[in-house]
Sequence to fold (476 residues):
Amino acid sequence: MKTRTSLDFPRPFTLVDVVIFAVRADRLQVLLVRRPAHESDPFPGRWALPGGFVDVARDADLLACAQRKLFEKTAIDSPYLEQLGSWGSMRRDPRGWSATHVYFALIAAPDAPPAEGGNAAQAGWFPLDALPGRRALAFDHDEILRAAIERLQSKVEYTSLPAFLLPEPFTLPQLQRIYEIVLGRAVDKSGFRTRMLAMDFLDEAGYQSGEAKRPAMGYRLRDRRVPVVFPRTFNPRR
Amino acid sequence: MKTRTSLDFPRPFTLVDVVIFAVRADRLQVLLVRRPAHESDPFPGRWALPGGFVDVARDADLLACAQRKLFEKTAIDSPYLEQLGSWGSMRRDPRGWSATHVYFALIAAPDAPPAEGGNAAQAGWFPLDALPGRRALAFDHDEILRAAIERLQSKVEYTSLPAFLLPEPFTLPQLQRIYEIVLGRAVDKSGFRTRMLAMDFLDEAGYQSGEAKRPAMGYRLRDRRVPVVFPRTFNPRR
DNA sequence: CGCTAAAAGTTGTATAGTACAACCCACAAA
DNA sequence: TTTGTGGGTTGTACTATACAACTTTTAGCG
Fold:
């Protein structure tokens, strides 16, 4: 290895992309945007994760950049946001060596379609079981999205992550439903309740009437910044 | 947001750093290297994580770059290597906006000091309880190192990660010792064994005599690429 | 006004997986 | 041959939970 005293060498592109999850219509969905149609752009017209180049003048750091990109697409300014990982290689972008820092966000389901935010790019929600076909996304976004889904599903087994997919206050049956949707299987009601309440991360917020037959207790997260980690996973006795 | 048709805008620096862990002398240790002493370099003479700029000509992707940097420092070519995360901001490097992709590696303890690899940089192993003082590392490497330690310790609670810190074949008592060193607390022998064997990720490799009084069964990992995830954490009855 | 359906929430039981502790076993050194 | 040390096993108590049956509270309706 040579010691580099000069900084005069080629630099890769630096990007930030965001995988935005929400539960809409009882299904886990992801927000995708369409690439511009100009033939001069890579992957014109293809669906892609929202994101783009870091702007060294505007973005103080990677997280701020991710928050900016998320806000531009959803007008949501304080979602749950965690770093997923980074992908970089000389091949992933035809324009040259590029590396993207990927975050994943969990937001409460908006009923309306995504805000167009004044910018021309189309955006759309895609249920995970109805994604654009394999290899259909731009760049390596197929692979990134798979990694995000895997991370989400595995963390849902042993954390309170799904709580970030609901607007507050939410009830325990609602929360359980989200767990079942993300995990793709039924969860026992009794065990679920004792576990959630035992972890002591929820604050009561009064009974929620009107939603169902009998009013259910509403809860808020005591700390919206970080999920709670359970000491065990949910283990059905197969 | 403007659509960027031109690629003529400033790019951040792109780096890769590696946090290399090993257990030596019954303590968890990290490999650090000294920054060059030139006053023109940032943080001259300070300890830092091994790493540096991505070389767009040599490095096919981020992982390859991390492997290269690790090999240059340790001459080890197939350790356990996983991505830790990335850190990027306009402030972390005085030379300008920079982003580093950080990997963490677990290697079997080398008895010899780190290979100097022909390059002048000094390198040294530091036990976690005897690190250079707070704020002593270059860049934001203090923060990165703390994150790496946190990730390692939390994953050790519920994965087979410590197995990558031992040369094969290893015995269960040896493996248990590594768990105890990393976790910083005693682990029950009986429970440890049943758990490890129940997870079915070890292959017997014959009795290892000479190590202790009574020969112990040696084991090899069935799959050296990925750690095994346990359904529960170790939970002493406080 | 009471009956009924449906969802919220509770209670009870069997069981799996350990934490803890006491034990036996194989070898090496004296 | 004895003895010490670490490897490995066995046995018991306990805890969380999976599963299932149950009670409670409301809305809707005749």
